């Protein structure tokens, strides 16, 4: 009896530690950033800038050069190139993924996925990660 309880302990712990689930039933895993609050703040700022159609504010949250698709080519864009092609890069699919990302609170993430590559929004339309100065920025835009 005691042995059976001991063997089931990891399952019980995993179940209780993974109680935060997304609407689709997936469970977020190891957060790669030093501060949950900082990541929440960046996502909120990105969502606010997208909803206000403030292209310059969105660009401030992007690490350049950033990978995206223009036409049928994968390219690395500088800030001025992103701004010149903003609506093609941040198309409706990308904007919807950003706006749909949700948290239950600043430290309890819901419906965003993260791993050692960073935080993924939507189905991989946008990836954010820590950059050189330890700020969190958009590093990839999968707009195709």
Report on the structure:
Strand 3 and strand 4 form a beta hairpin. 40% of the residues lie in helices and 25% in strands. The chain is of the alpha+beta class and 144 residues long. It has a single domain, classed as Nuclear Transport Factor 2, Chain: A. The protein is built from six helices and eight strands. It is globular and about 35 Å long. The protein has a six-stranded mixed β-sheet with strand order 2-1-8-7-6-5. A two-stranded antiparallel sheet has the order 3-4.
Keywords:
144 residues, alpha+beta, Nuclear Transport Factor 2, Chain: A, six-stranded mixed beta sheet, two-stranded antiparallel ribbon, 8 strands, globular, signal
Please state the structural category. Answer: alpha+beta
Low-confidence spans: pLDDT under 50, at least 5 residues?
A: 1-19
Instruction: Give the CATH architecture.
Output: Roll
Tally of separate helices: 6
Per CATH, the class reads: Alpha Beta
Tally the structural domains.
1
- CATH fold field value: Nuclear Transport Factor 2, Chain: A
How confident is the prediction overall: mean pLDDT?
78
As a percent range, the share of helical residues equals: 25-40%
Rg, alpha carbons:
18 Å
Number of strands: 8
Strand composition percent? 25-35%
Biggest beta-sheet profile: 6 strands, mixed
Measured distance between first and last alpha carbons: 55 Å
Per the principal axes of the C-alpha atoms, what is the gross shape?
A: globular
Major sheet: arrangement of strands: 2-1-8-7-6-5
Strand-and-helix sequence, N→C? HHHEEHHHEEEEEE
């Amino acid at each position: 009896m005691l042995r059976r309880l001991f063997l089931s302990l990891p399952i019980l712990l995993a179940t209780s530690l993974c109680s935060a689930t997304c609407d689709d039933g997936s469970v977020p895993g190891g957060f790669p950033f030093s501060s949950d609050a900082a990541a929440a703040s960046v996502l909120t700022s990105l969502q606010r800038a997208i909803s206000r159609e403030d292209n310059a504010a969105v660009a401030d949250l992007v690490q350049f050069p950033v990978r995206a698709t223009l036409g049928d080519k994968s390219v690395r864009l500088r800030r001025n190139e992103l701004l010149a092609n903003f609506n093609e890069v941040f198309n409706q699919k990308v904007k919807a993924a950003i706006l749909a990302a949700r948290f239950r609170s600043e430290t309890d993430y819901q419906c965003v996925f993260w791993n050692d590559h960073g935080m993924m929004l939507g189905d991989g339309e946008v990836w954010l990660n820590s950059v050189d100065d330890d700020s969190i920025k958009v590093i990839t835009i999968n707009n195709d």
